[in-house]
Design a protein that fits this description.
Blueprint (H helix, E strand, L loop, with lengths): L1 H5 L5 H6 L21 E7 L4 H8 L9 E6 H4 L6 E4 L14 E7 L11 E6 L2 E11 L5 E5 L7 E5 L3 E12 L4
Parallel strand pairs: 1-3
Antiparallel strand pairs: 1-2, 3-4, 4-9, 5-6, 5-9, 6-7, 7-8
Length: 178
């Protein structure tokens, strides 16, 4: 009984009667699915490739040259041209922490002026940032103000002529625990 107390993974039937298996089958609350039908390969842009993504954006994105990240079909919800982005830094914490991976869908440039309140990836000049759009003055004053959720992150005002692309963050697909 002392052995069973110290080593609960050993089967009492094995110790007392010699019946196999030697180890108890652990109880589990997880079911593993091996079907690949539930996932899709989505282009993945890790932090280390932000600069090359910005550089190659004007030339068009070639999906074959990019890494991919598996995303469940249910998360995709028929999103077109989605990409997975890796979050860098803590300017959007506590919601998006460093290392989190998010699903982003492109916003048509004809709809940029109507985006507000959500979290977006914005490419402007040679920068690629993930921020919240609170003040969208693209229609009236031709600028966009991007805000950090973290009070220490600040904000940045971007003129319309500097914006190269906008993606709406629609879902967190993976995030480390902070």
């Amino acid at each position: 009984m002392s052995l069973l107390t110290c080593y609960p993974q050993i089967s009492s039937d094995f110790l007392i009667r010699g019946k196999l298996p030697v180890l108890n089958v652990p109880e589990t609350n997880v079911r593993l699915f091996t079907s690949d039908d539930d996932t899709l390969e989505v282009p993945f842009i890790p932090v280390k490739f932000y600069a090359s993504f910005v550089e190659s954006y004007a030339d068009g994105i070639n999906g074959t040259d990019m890494e991919t990240f598996r995303v469940r079909k249910a998360v995709m919800k028929n999103q077109k041209q989605a990409v997975v982005l890796e979050i860098s830094g803590n300017s959007m914490s506590p919601q998006l922490i460093h290392g989190a991976k998010v699903l982003a869908v492109p916003v048509s440039d004809s709809n940029w002026e109507y985006q507000s309140g959500g979290v977006y990836a914005v490419m402007y000049r040679d920068y690629f940032v993930v921020k919240r759009i609170r003040d969208n003055e693209l229609l009236t004053r031709k600028y966009l103000t991007l805000h950090s959720d973290n009070p220490n992150g600040g904000n940045v005002t971007v003129p319309l002529q500097d914006i190269r692309g906008i993606w709406k963050i629609v879902s967190i697909v993976e995030a480390p625990v902070e």
